[in-house]
Amino acid sequence: GLLMAIVRRIPHEDRAMREGRWQTGLGVELAGKTLGIIGLGRIGSRIAAFGQFLGMRVLAWGPTLTEERAAASGVTYVPLDTLFRESDVISLHLRLSEQTLGIVTARRLSLMKRTAYLVNTARGPRVDGAALGAARREGRIAGAALDVYDVEPLPLNYPLLALQNVVLS
């Protein structure tokens, strides 16, 4: 839901319609784009299948993922930095561990395309919230959608709350 909301601009267009405006922009067509899955477990595999259904090329990385297991799901295993460089949408589905804590760093966000989106529905502490806010505020990524955060509950001054093209739930 968050993936579709951010790339199709659903919250933005809903607000515009309620204010009497009509189609303020166009959402991204996902067919032909690349979906990067970080963590190809039970949920990550379902999101990969969803991406394939939408006509997306699917890349995956995980701390224990092998090329063979990725291929069995019909996806391509790549190194993590490659996934960040090549993906149009990145979706996180990792268990929280020492190895995955803070895995989405400012450096990795800097590898993303300016037109790319980050979706995190896994655990908040995997993403450096300040770095994500800076990447979005400076237009280095197109948007983000999250339902987990590095600080919970969110304080009213949380930087992502004030940013455009960020969906929070």
What would your notes on this structure say?
It is a single chain. With 169 residues, this protein is an alpha/beta fold. It is 33% helix and 16% strand. It has helices at 2-7, 10-18, 42-53, 67-72, 80-86, 106-111, 129-137; strands spanning 34-38, 57-61, 76-77, 89-92, 117-120, 143-146, 166-168. Strand 5 (117-120), helix 7 (129-137) and strand 6 (143-146) form a beta-alpha-beta unit. The mean pLDDT is 93.
Mean pLDDT, all residues: 93
What is the global morphology? globular
Main sheet record? 7 strands, parallel
Tell me the β content.
15-25%
Low-confidence stretches: none
In the sheet with the most strands, the strands line up as 3-2-1-4-5-6-7
What is the structural class? Answer: alpha/beta
What is the count of β-strands?
Answer: 7
Counted by DSSP, the helix tally is: 7
For the terminal residues, how far apart are their CA atoms?
A: 11 Å
User: What letter string, H or E per element, gives the SSE order?
Assistant: HHEHEHEHEHEHEE
Helix percentage: 25-40%
The gyration radius over C-alpha positions equals 16 Å
